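Holo model, iron/sulfur cluster. Inputs:
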Amino acid sequence: MNPDKIERENHKLEKRLCRLVGQAIADYAMIEAGDRIMVCLSGGKDSYTLLDILLKLRQRAPIDFELIAVNLDQKQPGFPAEVLPAYLTQLGVPFHIETQDTYSVVKKIIPEGKTTCSLCSRLRRGILYRVARELGCNKIALGHHRDDILQTLLLNMFFGAKLKGMPAKLVSDNGEFMVLRPLAYVAEPDLVRWAQVRQFPIIPCNLCGSQDNLQRVQVGQMLREWERQHPGRLDNMLKALQSVVPSHLMDRELFPFETLQTTGQPVGDGDTVFDAPDPPAGPATPTLQSVALPLPTRAPTGPRASSSASSNSQPAAQPAL
Ligand code: SF4
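Output:
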């Protein structure tokens, strides 16, 4: 590609990232004047982009708010402790590196070969809440993006039997902080590209030696395959999360099925009996075959997926910060 074209493409990507992050911030009223936001920085592409785009948006925001980058050095073997301080110093952003050897704690408590992520995440959450409190932050921004949200939705359906994703904004479980996900509308491939454009000094995410969450990896592959076959499907799935029709689901807490009465009057969103509503036409409209998972030819259902589904009733783990 010629340099002018690369430049134009990069500029388009930057505009798209700023637009999508700005839109998510506006839609969910994420940021108010006077906020002090702790931006969790792991050294991966997502959190670097989060900080980068928030800094750009802050420059043109009509309100004042503060961003403080925070990294938790968990003392994993090989963690390059100098990388983030050097990057953040050169950026001129206020930052704090919290050093806590959770790696040794986890290794001591969890038997060899067992998954360490749930204890590690619990420890990390407690530390980050304490740091946010000490830094006087009222909000915590995380780098989860559209594809993380959709993976979590499907994992919770498949293994946790819950229609539950990962929200763009929610109060923390201890009730103290507002947790924000400003990248909620951003597609992962855009984050990969932006990390290359900006040449972020990426820190590898496998230093703890823990196995990747196999189910999350498989669901991620499935989503990417769907998107490859039907561009736009993942954006449609995200939009579906913003357009829920409780009467057409089956949660008795959300819709009063037990006390439902006929009125004799037409009901706009009433049941159409045998006629399943047609999906709207468009490039992302699925065909019947394409709704199926990409399956191995000889197995009627994904062998790993089905065995995991029957054996694992735990809610899906959240991706790392
Ligand atoms: S993968 Fe992440 S959450 Fe899991 S043990 Fe390693 S650092 Fe902790």
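The longest strand covers residues 66-73. Confidence is low (pLDDT under 50) at residues 283-321.
Archived with the compound record.
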